[in-house]
Amino acid sequence: MPVEPDPTPWAFPPPDRWDPSDDLVALGADLAPGTLLAAYRAGLFPMPTDFDGEAMGWFSPTRRGVLPLDNLRVTRSLRRSARTFEIRVDTAFDQVVAECGHPDRPDGWITPEFREAYGLLHRMGWAHSVEAWRDGRLAGGLYGVAVGGLFAGESMFHTERDASKVALVGLVDLLSDEHAADRVLDVQWVTPHLATLGVVARSRASYLASLRRALELPEPLGLVAPAR
């Protein structure tokens, strides 16, 4: 089971103090494991901002991107493509994060600090990668944080067509157990690309209510691994 870290010394503001028109909730703190887990449990996630240079921002979108597990749209061509990949879990976490943060990607935000922080969460059993392999090569994947019935997706990448989508299909399969109706697959914001896959926007209040239920659930068996 995941190792619970030392509690964070930081206190995030409660939801009744969040600006209802602003996705940004707080600035500062750190990326220690206890801080990250406290944030995800509160409905927040970190991302660097332009405020004060390198200040850390903590976000809770007013319109949260969520993929209902029964709403994933898998086309015939994607199903055919999926048969040509092998899905693996947590066999190349650091490589997946590095590819997601490749400097050639536009709007990159995955800094070395983020890579180190999520690598530590992975070794403690909280962060996971779902990978699409072909012919012994990593072709695409995604990573995120699993806390109870929440999977907070952070980023995805591909070097071969459909590989990141196939990894997403693999993740949904892993989450689709007897608790699937109450699990939350969070993707932060809705983008046009994610919308084509079935991602929908939920109000902040709706997301926080579903999160409270999800946190009471066990992690899916496919993501449970010993701490490293």
From TrEMBL:
EC number, as in UniProt: 2.3.2.6
Location within or outside the cell: Cytoplasm
Entry keyword Zinc-finger: no
This protein's GO CC annotations: cytoplasm
Main location: cytoplasm
MF annotations from Gene Ontology: leucyl-tRNA--protein transferase activity
Catalysed reactions, as listed in the record: L-phenylalanyl-tRNA(Phe) + an N-terminal L-alpha-aminoacyl-[protein] = an N-terminal L-phenylalanyl-L-alpha-aminoacyl-[protein] + tRNA(Phe); N-terminal L-lysyl-[protein] + L-leucyl-tRNA(Leu) = N-terminal L-leucyl-L-lysyl-[protein] + tRNA(Leu) + H(+); N-terminal L-arginyl-[protein] + L-leucyl-tRNA(Leu) = N-terminal L-leucyl-L-arginyl-[protein] + tRNA(Leu) + H(+)
Gene3D superfamilies registered for this protein in UniProt: Leucyl/phenylalanyl-tRNA-protein transferase, C-terminal domain, Leucyl/phenylalanyl-tRNA-protein transferase, N-terminal domain
Keyword list, A-Z: Acyltransferase, Cytoplasm, Transferase
GO biological process, one term: protein catabolic process
Record bears the keyword Transferase: yes
Function in brief: Functions in the N-end rule pathway of protein degradation where it conjugates Leu, Phe and, less efficiently, Met from aminoacyl-tRNAs to the N-termini of proteins containing an N-terminal arginine or lysine.
Family per record: Belongs to the L/F-transferase family.
Name the record gives this protein: Leucyl/phenylalanyl-tRNA--protein transferase
Lineage: Bacteria, Bacillati, Actinomycetota, Actinomycetes, Propionibacteriales
